[in-house]
Amino acid sequence: MENSEGVKIESTVVTEEPLISALDIALFVVIITVAYFWYFKRDKQSSSSEKKPYTIQPSSLSSIEQTSNSSFIKKLKSTGRSLVVFYGSQTGTAEEFAGRIAKEGARYKMKGMVADPEECDMADLVEMKEIQKSLAIFCIATYGEGDPTDNAMDFYEWLQNGDADLEGLNYAVFGLGNKTYEHYNEIAIYIDQRLEELGATRVHEIGLGDDDANIEDDFVSWKEKLWESVCSHYGIEETGEESNIRQYKLVDCSEVLPERIFSGEISRLKSYENQRFPFDVKNPYLSKIAVNRELHKSGDRSCMHIEFDIDGSKMRYDTGDHVAVYPKNSSELVDKIGELLNADLDAVFSLLNTDEESSKKHPFPCPCTYRTALTYYLDITSNPRTHIMKELIEYASDPKDQEKLKLMASSTPEGKKEFHEWILRDNRNIVHILEDLPSVKPDLDHLCELLPRLQCRYYSISSSPKVYPKSIHITAVLVNYTTPTNRVNKGVATNLLAQLIPTNDELPQPTIPIYIRRSQFRLPPKSQTPIIMIGPGTGLAPFRGFIQERDYARKEGREIGEMVLYFGCRKKDEDFIYENELQEYVANGTLTKLHLAFSRDQPEEKYVTHLLEQNADELWNIIGEKSGHLYVCGDARSMAKDVHSIIVKVVMEKGQMTNSQALNYVKKMEQQKRYSADVWS
């Protein structure tokens, strides 16, 4: 027989007095039963606690270094501070802006601190009124389809569902968004309005930063007026003192044992050697590259089909999800920085926060070598912001270099013009600046403090887990371009991926850290629902997964609805990616119609938008008469906007509606998830 834990118990029948009485057996069963329930109840509680949101500071050796006290009010009171700057950040920009505001507070006798709302008990906002001349500032990014960032989600839900009395709370909000997206700065606007509804006092009007234009300029302009409003509201004056106090201090770690030194891990030391599920933004999976092949047939451009091996990882994805890839900077650029600054890149160091109350002890995993920091943790290829120009001034020995940096760091019209032309238009990164201003020789540890974190890159998954449960496919164009200064800039992630070619021999396969980001870009729940997919270029990626999934359903004998695909590229014989696959799906009936636009195969350019206008009847038949779904993937700046305008026009004409009615109809489609976009700018 088996007991409750499945352990076989052998019994023997004897005629003599049994060694174990019935009472003993009964007691034994009771003890085993109690032990069983105690064990599994404890295990269940343990599992439950593991599912709760957790934060591993990317700047610490382990989660132990996190502060156990989530009360930011207590920290403010115990350290004599009156300013707290919260950030909702997905890529690090909002966190950077928050740090700059907190630092500037000293100029107005407002000692500040930066806080992650995910680590704070935001209900403590009701107690801000207990601190004299207190101010809470929120730097909030809007992410995805009008969603809060991961670390601001709990705060957003608290505002939505709660009714706290925030009378006496003084606040200001700066939003980070992108005008090419429909839900521009939606979360920041909501937070700004909701705080006022709950009784808080708006000290300065909301600022809306547009990443599609010049978000740095938007932020600096708003920040200047913010401090004017703060001075007026509290009756204070600027001290005039420039705060160049560093946030982190350098610690020599030359004596640290090698096994305690980070070598590129995102958070946990040796995490790539000892992988632990679940995998996420702070604990990525080190995936092998199973396939890396060229999709373009000819021409000087490159488009890669890459397959990440996730067999044995327990990772699961859905069709339409994104995969995040952690890149690293090229050794050429890293070595160039060491050469320009005459620095020992293999020296081991740490940067320790001078604010002992901060939960963020380090700006990135420490200790590590300068080479590791510049390779894995710091963004050395993007355009530096104005505050970096300001910090570099003191390191310039040539007066001309000093004046140029001062001008670009200023908020004057001339300074903004110079920054826009010399940094943004000419596309200079920190390496180019150090090359073109040769007298500027910053301390390398200070430069590491100033540079933003290197972010992971997201790609639409171009496979279906029904067909490929053990691998994740992506479709990526190799990014290389020449700048106005005749330098060749290379995409950090795609140029790294291009080098990761799997071998056919027994050599170790190339690997790269990844994790899965969930998406709302989903097929209809019913396979019979007709759909239209619009995806020129690599916008085809998620639709490859959609088609695979519908084809799988068809082969299982399930009924599938119409699938219409609009695809476009430059030339049929050059960059028609996945051509054979698509033609096969047309032949077997999975893909009902394949509309193709090759923009440069004829004298007049032809795009998918032209085909949409020509097929108005088909469009209305599916989205209007059959209540089908419409999907768009690709460029947000022009293509997605043009598609939206065409859809509204088709609804007007074929649905016999006014412009207002058509707009409402399309809006309702979006609300019902019948019109979905996976776009980028």
Automatic annotation (TrEMBL):
Question: Known EC number(s)?
Answer: 1.6.2.4
Q: How is the cofactor bound?
A: Binds 1 FMN per monomer.
Instruction: Cite a single GO BP annotation.
Output: response to hormone
Q: What is this protein called?
A: NADPH--cytochrome P450 reductase
Q: Where is the Flavodoxin-like domain?
A: 83-227
Q: Where are the transmembrane segments?
A: 20-39
Q: List the SUPFAM superfamilies.
A: Ferredoxin reductase-like, C-terminal NADP-linked domain (SSF52343), Flavoproteins (SSF52218), Riboflavin synthase domain-like (SSF63380)
Give the molecular function GO annotations. flavin adenine dinucleotide binding; FMN binding; NADP binding; NADPH-hemoprotein reductase activity
Cellular component GO terms, alphabetically?
cytosol; endoplasmic reticulum membrane
User: What is the protein's known function?
Assistant: This enzyme is required for electron transfer from NADP to cytochrome P450 in microsomes. It can also provide electron transfer to heme oxygenase and cytochrome B5.
Family assignment from sequence similarity: In the C-terminal section; belongs to the flavoprotein pyridine nucleotide cytochrome reductase family. Belongs to the NADPH--cytochrome P450 reductase family.
Sorted alphabetically, which Pfam families does this protein's record hold? FAD_binding_1, Flavodoxin_1, NAD_binding_1
Q: Sorted alphabetically, which Gene3D superfamilies does this protein's record hold?
A: 3.40.50.360, NADPH-cytochrome p450 Reductase, Chain A, domain 3, Nucleotide-binding domain of ferredoxin-NADP reductase (FNR) module, Translation factors
User: CDD domains recorded for this chain?
Assistant: CYPOR
Kindly list the organism's lineage.
Eukaryota, Metazoa, Ecdysozoa, Arthropoda, Hexapoda
Subcellular location per UniProt equals: Endoplasmic reticulum membrane
The enzyme's first-digit EC class, named in words, is oxidoreductase
Q: Which residues bind FAD?
A: R457, Y458, Y459, S460, T475, A476, V477, Y481, G491, V492, A493, T494, W680
Q: Which reaction does it catalyse?
A: 2 oxidized [cytochrome P450] + NADPH = 2 reduced [cytochrome P450] + NADP(+) + H(+)
What residues bind FMN, as annotated? 89-94, 141-144, 176-185, 211
